[in-house]
Specification:
Layout lengths: L1 E6 L2 E8 L2 E6 L2 E5 L4 H12 L6 E5 L5 H6 L6 E6 L2 H6 L5 H4 L8 E5 L2 H6 L5 E6 L11 H7 L1 H9 L1 E11 L6 H8 L3 E6 L7 E7 L12
């Protein structure tokens, strides 16, 4: 099975291979359904850093593992921002088992938009932001992924966190200096390495807002 669409960002392919699905952009493998561990760690690591019933934003729907994990938590609201309408449609069809039908959860709202652009038009703030919009800060396929991993993009993300909030960023490999940049722009950062069955592990960076007088207190 193979489905192919052409978007403003080029060709996007969903391909079935050996019982799994692969999401490919302009010939580059973005993600597949062979392992769900690091995407689930992305959500859990962010939520472990904050209090109960968080308001959560997930940047990038992908193959749905992060969202599936999010609906298992006590999150009060889950906003998913996904740039490709086709990806959302696939989760109402062939990818539904991997997101575990999470689009039907009443706490979930899906926004089809470029995350960087969407952030410039909203004043919404979140207890946790989980970012999985590309292959990572050191290997970006799209310009919007590059923008968000730069200091200016991280500062924008920081502005959309509530006091005491956490930003978690998924990466296919460790990015030189990225943890230090996160610490400078957001707050103290820890790095979680997840074995991925190849030479380099997946990496989740988790930065917590520091210096907030109201750390841990929910704000509107």
């Amino acid at each position: 099975m193979e489905e192919r669409v052409f978007t403003d960002r080029g060709e996007l392919v969903l391909r079935s291979r050996d019982g799994h699905f692969e999401l490919i952009s302009n010939g580059v493998l973005l993600m597949d359904t062979r392992s769900d561990r690091s995407e689930r760690v992305l959500v859990r690591a962010a939520l472990d850093a904050i209090g109960p019933r968080p308001r959560l934003l997930i940047g990038g729907l992908g193959v749905g593992f992060a969202l599936a994990e999010a609906v298992r938590t006590d999150a009060s609201e889950i906003i998913v921002v996904e740039v490709e309408p086709a990806v959302v449609d696939w989760h109402r069809g062939v990818l539904r088992p991997f997101s575990e039908g999470a689009l039907d959860d009443p706490r979930v709202r899906v926004v089809t938009a470029d995350l960087a652009v969407w952030f410039t038009g909203t004043s919404d703030r979140f207890d946790a932001i989980c970012l999985d919009v590309d292959n990572g800060p050191g290997w970006t396929v799209f310009d919007h992924g590059t923008r968000l991993s730069r200091p200016s993009g991280l500062a924008m993300l920081r502005e959309h966190l509530r006091p005491g909030g956490a930003l978690a960023v998924w990466s296919a490999s460790a990015g030189p200096g990225f943890a230090a940049t996160l610490t400078r722009m957001v707050g103290p950062c820890r790095t979680v390495r997840i074995p991925a069955g190849r030479a380099r592990p997946d990496v989740v960076y988790v930065a917590s807002c520091a210096g907030d007088d109201l750390r841990g207190v929910r704000s509107p």
